[in-house]
Amino acid sequence: MKTKLNGLVAITAFAIILAIPLTNYGGRGRYGGYSGSSSSGGSSSSGGSSTSTSPSVPIGTLVAYPTQVQTGTHPNLTWSIEHPGGVTEVVTITPPGTVTPKKQLRMKVRVVGASVKRVWLNSHGQITDWEWVNTECQMKYGNGNYSRIFYGKQNQVNPNTIVKNQIVNTGYSIDFGGRFVLSNGSWSTFFSSTNSNNNVIALKDGDLTPDVSALYGQQTVEDFLRPYVDEDGYVDIGPMDVIYLVELTHTNMNDGGFDLQDLVLLVTFEEP
Asked: How confident is the model at residue 68 (pLDDT cuts 50, 70, 90)?
C-alpha cells in the first residue's frame, strides 16, 4: 500500500506466504530451500521468518524495506522460499518398511508395478514363452488385519490410479505386503513389512536403491523404476512420498531372480 507524505512514499512493510501446490505426486522432484534479495539503491535488504504450513507445499515470505522511500526510488525486496523438509518430518519409517504417522495425515497409495511373470523354458533353460501373473497387494493399518487394496496383472497397472485413500492417525502403524497366484491356483507365500527383513523395503527421496541381480534382462532395480530414480541410482520422488519395493518370488538375495520388482508401491502423505 502506498501513501504520499511530503515527497515521500510510505510503503507498508508486508510479508506474503507463498503456497505452491506440488503436482508431481508419483513423479520426480528433490526439493531444497533457497532465498534471495533485490534492491535498487538504498539500504541493504533484510529477511523474514519462515511459517509452518502443510508439509506438501512450499512456504515463504516477501518483505519490502524500508517502509518509506523517496518518490522515484525503490525499496529493497527480500524473499525466502522454504520447500518441504521431507517425509520423515511427518512419519517414522521403521525398517524394513513400517510407517507410523507423527500427526494425522491423508495417505494415498498407488501401484507402480506388479511384474510377476510365469515363464516356460526349453531343455537349455531358455525362455520360450511367458505371461503376467495375478498379484495381490494388502495393507495393514494399526491393530487391524491385512486386507486387499489391489489385485491384478502388470498390464492392468495404472500408476496414476489411487488404490487406497484414507486418513491415518498419529501412532497408527502402516504396513504393506503381497503375494501372487501360483500355476495350480493357490497362493504363493505372503511377504510383508512385518514378516520379512529383505523381501519388502521402504525408501524415501534421496535413498540409494539396492543394486541386486536382475531377472530376465532387467539390469538393476533402476530399470524398472526409471521414472522414480535419478541417474546416480538415488530415489527421486516427491518429498512426502515413500516407495515400497517388494520381492515375491525369491528369498535368497544372491539369487539371480531376486530383483525387488515384483510389486512396487508409491505412498504419498498430505495434510488431511
From this structure: confident
d(CA 125, CA 217): 14
Residues 6 or more apart whose Cβ sits within 8 Å of residue 79: 35, 36, 37, 38, 48, 60, 61, 62, 63
Measure the CA–CA gap between 192 and 263, rounded to whole angstroms. 11
Cβ neighbourhood burial of 85 (10 Å; 0-12, 13-18, 19+): middle
CA separation for the pair 136, 179 (Å, rounded): 5
Neighbours of 82 (CB within 10 A): 19
Q: What's the rounded Cα separation, in Å, for the pair 59 and 79? A: 11
pLDDT in tens, 165-178: 999 999 999 999 99
- How far from each other are the two terminal CA atoms of the chain, in whole angstroms? 35
Compute CA 198 distance to the chain's CA centroid, rounded to the nearest angstrom.
Answer: 21
Contacts of 187 (CB under 8 A, 6+ apart): 136, 179, 180, 181
